[in-house]
## 1
Amino acid sequence: MRGLYIHIPFCRAKCGYCDFASAPGTPGEIDVFLGALAREASTYAGLAGKFSTLYVGGGTPSLLSPGQLEKLFFIISTLTGPLKAIAESTFEANPESLDAVKAELLMNAGVNRISMGLQASQDSLLKRLGRLATPGDFLKAFGLLRGAGFANINADLMCGLPGQTRKDFTDSIEWLLKLKPEHVSFYALEVHDGTPFSADGVEEEPDEAADMYEDGAAALGLAGFARYEISNFSRPGRESAHNLNYWEQGEYLGMGPAAASYLGGERRANTASTAAYLKAALGGDAIPLQYRETLTGKAKNAEKIMLGLRKTSGIELTDYIFIEFKDEISRLLDAGLIEKSGLRIRIKEDRLYVSNAVFREFV
Ligand code: SF4
């Protein structure tokens, strides 16, 4: 099992809260980027045919024109072979940049899972976030995807937004559930330095977000979704295989600006600067890295536990790792944050929202 992640660093406009590596890009800049991506892909020819999942994220991958999408899928195929042979291929889309032609093209390329940002079903909240799509745009794009044959669609929602009430959040979930998505993810707003929200003095609202989280988890549970990770809910069998691989400390290759990889025991991430990425890739130089580290011994096992505890099923430890972390595990059991069955530990369902308190024990 090895995943392939491709980061498309372009969006039509920047959302107020976003600190991802993305910026508005002209069609010409996207063409140049695809040339650089092809160069980067050629350096990984030795991994060709060794991927079982694909995730194209960003940024806004659906911003690419049909011709650019065809070029992107050709580049990807040099590493994956025909996408139809891959167990799961996810493509991120935003409603305002998806149309019937692109939906068809994605289906014909072999994409079998779409992840689309809704965030909220209230126009006023979407405007406050700086999102370009309305709930009506989401509805239309969802219909186009179903019409093209997509039977596995995720929608992202956000909670803890400025001015958002608990009712707004549950209304958003009810609104979304009418469309019968296969998967739902939700995230609490984080205000990062350097974003317009940070400059505007927007503050995180962790208590309100925690209440919304619990309301949302309850509503999705009643609708037949199972929470399988802190922020991820799916209908049976629709868990994201690509993301599960991250939480199981599996290998993956990331390509594009800011993309992270875990290969041969080494973690690294490409530079988040699109300009530096383009310069290096097109010049035939190694892509500059944000970081590179190889975890071994106890640090590697601590990471394994932290990743595994993100899953609601938790993690089954070996005798050795259990003894290595027996003090940390005892403290978490005493604090009522985790539960244990044999050598399996997991965060208690009603403590998932405060999982950072658990992870701190292993840092
Ligand atoms: S669409 Fe996504 S990646 Fe693009 S600016 Fe908004 S939050 Fe960031």
## 2
Amino acid sequence: MFKVGLIGCGNIVNSHVSAIAHVDELTVTAACDISEANLKRMCDKTGATGYSDYKEMVKNEELDLVIISLPHALHREATCFCAEAGLDIFLEKPMGISSDDCREMIDACNKAGVMLWVGHPQRYFPTNMFAKELIDSGELGELVGFDETRNCEYFTENRPKWFLTKSMSGGGIMFNLGAHALDKIKYFCGDEKIAFATGSAHIREGFDCEDSAQGFVKMANGVSGTLNLIAHTKAYRYEDILYLTKGEIRIANGEVYYCGEDGVFKTQTFEIVHDNFVLQLMDVVKALKSPDKKPAVDGDFGLDVIHAIKCIYGEEK
Ligand SMILES: NC(=O)c1ccc[n+]([C@@H]2O[C@H](COP(=O)([O-])OP(=O)(O)OC[C@H]3O[C@@H](n4cnc5c(N)ncnc54)[C@H](O)[C@@H]3O)[C@@H](O)[C@H]2O)c1
């Protein structure tokens, strides 16, 4: 049994804790948050011992794994501290607020010989796993292009305020939701590296982060893709299109629509046995039990995503 400590007990931790209930090898024994209310809610839910300081938690508790779900600017310090303490780490996406931050985390984890898994859970959606199998089968030819459009209300009342403060979040919709799109294009390309990225982000007057952004990325294998993320609409749309030499795959509304050279679309629907957070943690456990503890999504992967977003912003080259 691996003992888990939670660092940050906000919104996303609910998904991790619900998932842990389906993963026999994980148990939450400690939790930390500076918000008394969030900490109490999580301790009541899990029976964990609560702390307001994660350094105290790490010193006092015998933990195997920490799940870090903090505002993005705090990822680096917490990850480096836990690595130095010899703990394996699951770190929520996006990995950090700059490429330098990510490199520091990678170095700290390598030096300490601990696992660093960056949580990019959308590859565990049944739609995306089905699309990946279809691509890998070769039935529709070779993947040549990717396009994501995501329209949603981003600046909602219940979004924690730090997401809208660039020094804490690293950026707006592209930083937060674009990280998922870049995870997907990398996943569909066999975890290929991003060779080039550019784009543009629009920050409205009075705001600190962008609410709409467009990106263009080219993968090392030549596949290219566009990202169009728009945050000021109630007209929800979330669609990925994959262009192949002999067909097309569209992912939307929890379904996959795909066609071959005849252009006639078939629809694939899904029955969900385990949600994507359960599947992700099952893979984390597999890695923890393996001799080399190799994560499926490691620090270099997380860094590649952050660097591409920073290039889209024009803040890194
Ligand atoms: N994988 C996904 O689909 C997904 C979805 C949402 C959020 N996330 C990611 O999860 C992370 C957290 O996001 P969230 O939505 O849960 O945010 P949140 O604001 O709800 O939670 C963050 C928590 O961290 C606590 N905190 C802040 N400073 C702290 C400190 N020094 N020590 C201990 N606790 C501290 C806050 O009080 C809060 O409870 C981010 O990286 C975010 O991008 C991922």
